[in-house]
Amino acid sequence: xxxxxxxxxxxxxxxxxxxxxxxxxxxxxxxxxxxxxxxxxxxxxxxxxxxxxxxxxxxxxxxxxxxxxxxxxxxxxxxxxxxxxxxxxxxxxxxxxxxxxxxxxxxxxxxxxxxxxxxxxxxxxxxxxxxxxxxxxxxxxxxxxxxxxxxxxxxxxxxxxxxxxxxxxxxxxxxxxxxxxxxxx
Length: 185
Ligand code: S3P
Fold this sequence. Notes:
The chain has a 5-stranded parallel beta sheet. The longest helix is centred in the middle third of the chain and has 17 residues, at 69-85. The protein has a single domain (18-168), classed as P-loop containing nucleotide triphosphate hydrolases (Rossmann fold, 3-Layer(aba) Sandwich). It is an alpha/beta fold and 185 residues long. It has helices at 30-41, 48-56, 60-67, 69-85, 102-111, 121-128, 142-157, 171-183, and strands at 19-23, 44-47, 90-93, 112-118, 162-165. α3 crosses α4, α4 (69-85) runs parallel beside α5 (102-111) and α6 (121-128) packs across α7.
C-alpha cells in the first residue's frame, strides 16, 4: 500500500486532532471511501448507519418499517452527537440525511472538517437501484424522489469545506483527492 507522506496532524486551534466527516447523498460512496480513507490515515472509521444498525439490532430498512423515519432520525441524532463528542481522530461516514438536523450540522462542523462527496442524480440512481437497503428510495418514482431530496439537501452539503466530485471516479481516486486536499489545507 502507498505510504502516506504526511502525518495526520492537522490540529484545530484548541489542539484537538481533527475528524474528517464525509457528507453527501445516498450512493456518493461515503462508506466505501470512508473505510479506505481511514485505513490510509491509520485512524478509526465510524459509520453512523452501521452504529444505528448495531444499537438497534435490526437493519435500517427494519427501523424505518417498524418504527418510522422520525424514530430513525432520533437514533441517528443520538449517535451523531455521541460520535462528535469523542476526542479521537477518525473518519466519519454520515447518512445522506444526517445534515438535515440543525443540531447534527452544528456538532459535525464543530467536530471536524466536512467533505462533500458529490454525486449527480443520475449516478445516485444508478448506484442505489440494486440496493434495496435505502427505504427512502423505495418509491414509485425514485428518480423524482432523488431530485426532490437533493433540492433540499444540496445547500446543506455545500456548506462542507471541501467538495469532491465522485461520478467519474473510483473509490481509490476519491480517497486520493481527499488526501491531496487535506495535505494542502
Ligand atoms: C438516508 C440515507 C442512508 C440511511 C437512511 C436514510 C437518507 O444512508 O441513513 O436510509 O436520508 O438519505 P446512506 O447515505 O449511507 O445511504
